Amino acid sequence: MEEEIRAKIPSTKNTKVICRSGRPLEITDIEMVNPHDARSIIIISPEAPNPDTHVIKSVLALTNNPHRRKDKYHIVAEIKEEANLEAAKVVGRDEVTYVLSYDVVAKVTAQTCRQSGLSVVYTELLDYAGDEIYFQNEPRLIGRTFKESLFAYEDSAVIGIQYKNGKVQVNPPMNTMIREGDKIIAISEDDDTVILSGKTDIMIDRSVIKHEKTKKPPTEKSLILGWNEKGGRIIKELDNYAAPGSKVLIMAEYEGMDDIVADINSKLKNKRVEFKNGNITFRSQLDSIDIPSFDHIIILSYTQGMDIQEADAQTLICLLHLRNISEQCGKHFSIVSEILDVRNQSLAEVARADDFIISDKLISLMLTQFSENKYLKYVFDDFFDAEGSEIYLKPVTDYVEVGKSVNFYTVIASAAQFGEVAFGYRIHEYQYNPDKFFGVVVNPDKSDSIVFSNEDRIIVLAED
């Protein structure tokens, strides 16, 4: 453990890392690390058969320890299978916040494949290197509406309210009144930067605001290349957003796919799934399915019976073929790639993936953030739920005129008329530039002026 930590984290800065050998399932072994004085406890799903049973037993060893403390623990734990979540909740009660990892990755992948750049937005919100989400009391906003609060901060982006009773609501109705005991949920650089600006003249240019939106395409065609246990969940999530008559084609070399596809189709409302057996690294087999006809493409890693590096290699080879097809036919199509090893991220960037989902990194970031503030779980639950307000990257042409200098207050005012919260943008020119965060800017200073182009996007919280 110590060698691996030193290899991957050369400097732990202000954190002292202490390793202990033992079984996290045993009460006597857990006592060695003195969990009773811990501010928070993170339980990671082990690389073992039936990993959820190990997590549940570890929770039991903590919560039912005869020497446990009187105060409640703050535990964050990973559960992989939804079928085990109910039992885990019974064991953990209100002391444990669970992250359903397969479900989270499936939802992020489904949302990201429909709108390039979304995975970068999620990483920005979860990564401590960028702006994060904070809960803040602000007595001076009591009696004002949620809409008014959107314009009250210069360098923090208000996205929701935590009510006095603890309930969290992302993007509530614009006329929602902020009352005593409520907290503002905002994106900011740090918890001490969520400060009212005091500005009275925010220079909104109403002459450039648009009042109509682009119509959505009636149906969509999605392609999944490769397969693993998250595939079914991804398709079910896609079904939540698709118009009736939409289609999904799966190409993979995977046993039992006919039965898997039949089971998935029986649970869908808007999409129809078809399967074609094929090797995703063979150019001839990719050409046979008319790649340019698809709106969205997802490359899933083979996680069974294959080494992680070999699985990532297959993903990268497939990605290179797709980019070559895109250049030859002169059509851009959105591609989301699943990468298993974070060290292969740079290779995905070279191969020009629109987005790449690194499952372990995403879940690790969530576990860490929730260990700091368990109420963040409710915010991200809202982001991931098709029934709530999700994050979208929508055409800038839906909000303001392009080619004209505008400040972000103007963009916020335009989004608010549709019941949406604008909190960032993506510049198309930098979509493949990691040094520019792939063009994604979260929580910009609202007074700064920017000139948008037709291909740019506004990052909003919206219900559709």
Domain module count: 3
Identify low-pLDDT runs.
Answer: none
CATH class of the largest domain: Alpha Beta
What is the topology, as strand order, of the major beta sheet? 10-9-8-11-12-13
CATH architecture of the largest domain: 2-Layer Sandwich
Query: What is the helical fraction, as a range of percent?
Result: 25-40%
Tell me the CATH topology of the largest domain.
Alpha-Beta Plaits
Could you name the CATH homologous superfamily of the largest domain?
A: Regulator of K+ conductance, C-terminal domain
Q: State the shape.
A: globular
Q: Structural class per helix/strand content?
A: alpha/beta
Rounded to an integer, what's the Rg over CA atoms? Answer: 23 Å
- Biggest beta-sheet profile: 6 strands, parallel
Distance between the termini: 45 Å
Provide mean pLDDT, rounded: 91
Put simply, the count of helices is 15
What percent strand? 15-25%
Number of strands: 19
Tell me about this structure:
This protein is of the alpha/beta class and 464 residues long. The chain folds into three domains: 2-103, NAD(P)-binding Rossmann-like Domain (Rossmann fold), CATH 3.40.50; 125-208 and 386-462, Alpha-Beta Plaits; 218-294 and 296-332, 3-Layer(aba) Sandwich (Rossmann fold). The protein is 31% helix and 20% strand. It is built from 15 helices and 19 strands. The chain has helices at residues 2-8, 27-30, 51-63, 85-92, 101-113, 118-126, 146-150, 231-241, 257-265, 283-287, 308-329, 345-350, 359-372, 376-384, 408-416; strands spanning 41-43, 75-79, 96-100, 132-136, 157-162, 168-170, 183-188, 221-225, 246-252, 271-277, 296-299, 334-339, 355-358, 390-395, 405-407, 421-426, 440-442, 449-451, 457-462. The strands form five sheets. Strands 10-9-8-11-12-13 form a six-stranded parallel sheet, sandwiched between helices. Strands 4-7-5-6 form a four-stranded antiparallel sheet. A four-stranded antiparallel sheet has the order 14-19-16-17, sandwiched between helices. Strand 2 (75-79), helix 4 and strand 3 form a beta-alpha-beta unit. Helix 3 packs parallel to helix 4 (85-92) and helix 5 packs across helix 8 (231-241). The chain is globular, with a radius of gyration of 23 Å.
